[in-house]
Structure formats: structure tokens, C-alpha cells
Amino acid sequence: MRSITIFIITTVLLFNTNSFANKKWGATGHRVVGAIADQYTSNKTKRHLKKLLNHQSLAFVSTFADEIKADPRYNEFDSWHYVNMSLDEDYESSKKNPKGDLVTGIAYCKKVIKDDKASDADKAFYLKMLIHLIGDLHQPLHIGREEDRGGNDIKVKWQFKDTNLHRVWDSQMIESYNMSYSELAANAEFISKKQIKFLQQGSIVDWVNSTQHLTKTIYNSVEEGENLRYAYSYEYLDIARTQLQIAGIRLAKVLNDLF
Q1: Quick one: CA torsion of 49, 55, 59, 65, rounded to 10 degrees?
Q2: pLDDT tens, per residue, the chain with 259 residues
Q3: pTM confidence score
Q4: Are the beta carbons of 234 and 34 closer than 8 angstroms?
Q5: Which residue segments constitute the domains of the chain, with CATH numbers given?
Q6: Rounded Cα distance, 181 and 31, in Å
């Protein structure tokens, strides 16, 4: 019942935005997004994905864009994982990163995937990037402030160990729940076709602005140096899980539209 309530609250935030709402989800979070997306992709889309991804699953390739960060040849894609803007502006009015951001990165991925002249290798590369970036879009601190690097510079403790607010939301809160990505995906909240259709409305920019509504809440959820424990998970883990579910549902929409 409590998670259903939080889902409704999140949906209200999205509705308000659509009526016109620097790292990553951890590996577990991204795999949850991929596994949930797989539940909503059409058979036609699945055939295209199987060909381009060499039969690898959405969950398996969802971490690709983080894995390549170890290779300096791919440094040009670093800024694609986030959008920095102040909390009193939306994406349209914000100062844009000349190196690109989540919005421009997603647009470029879609452009290559739809290009009949692009090679299958290039399409596969940007498809893997796209799968990851749609997940990143729904991590609230990927739509964070530049001055604290999306919460990376907000020092807190997690279960008495030094960390930062971004890392708590990326991975630590989810990992502490001690469920595999497949268990988390299988136990996502049941939602109706009407709710799914509603969540899939809007553009990438609309989704960024929607996520930022939660970003403001997250920034106000802690004090510098605070020791975050089970009470914090009780308050916010369901919101994180809901964001993963929304990301998966929207990723499926993006992929179905492409294929």
C-alpha cells in the first residue's frame, strides 16, 4: 500500500509537469530498467534488438555506457550522463553544456539508430548508449546542480560509512535492499495500461523536467554530514524503485518508436 501511494505521488508530479517535470544508477539499477523495459517492448522491437545486440538482453547491455568510461577514447561521452541546472529553472531555460548532455546525447543516439546508412556496429553502440541514458535520466541527481556535481560534493554517511548523496541514490540504498536486479524487476508495482500510457507521454525534455521535481525533494532530504540509515531507506527507497520502473516503461516506448 505504501509503495502504491508513493507511485501516485510521483505520477501527480509528472502530471503537473506534463500539463505545461554525475555518475549513474548502479549496475543493479540499470539492469532493473532494462529488465522492466523488456516486458513492454513489442515483438517487432524484440527482433530488432536481438539482431543488433547479438542476442544479449537489455539488462546485460544496460551498463555498457559506464563500462567504457575506463577507456579514455570514450571521454567525449562523459557529459551525456547528466544535465546540470539550478533548481529554479527547467531544461529549456538552463545554460547548456557545450560538450552535450543527457538530452543531446539521447537525440544523437536515436539519430544514428534511425539512419539507414549507419552500420550495424554503430547502431549497436548507440543503442547500448541509449538504453543506459534513459536510465540515467530518471536518477534524480543526474538532473542536479553544477556547483555540487549532482550531489557528489554533498558529504553524508551511509550506515556510518563516509559517502555522498549521489552515491547513496546511485547504488547504496538499492544495494542495501539486498535484492537482485531480476527480483526487483519482477516485484515492480502493478500498474494499469492507462497508467503506462500516461507515463509514456511527453518528450525527453518533459521527462527531464519531471525528474527535476524529485531532484528538489532529494536535495532537501539530508543535511551535510548526516548519517543515513534504515529510516532514510524507509522514506525514499520506494521512490527510487518507482523511478526505475518509470525508466523501464519509458525506455520501452523509445525503443518501440525507433523500431
Answers
A1: -70
A2: 344 434 444 444 444 333 323 445 889 999 999 999 999 999 999 999 999 999 999 999 999 999 999 999 999 999 999 999 999 999 999 999 999 999 999 999 999 999 999 999 999 999 999 999 999 999 999 999 999 999 999 999 999 999 999 999 999 999 999 999 999 999 999 999 999 999 999 999 999 999 999 999 999 999 999 999 999 999 999 999 999 999 999 999 999 999 9
A3: 0.90
A4: no
A5: 2-258 (1.10.575.10)
A6: 6
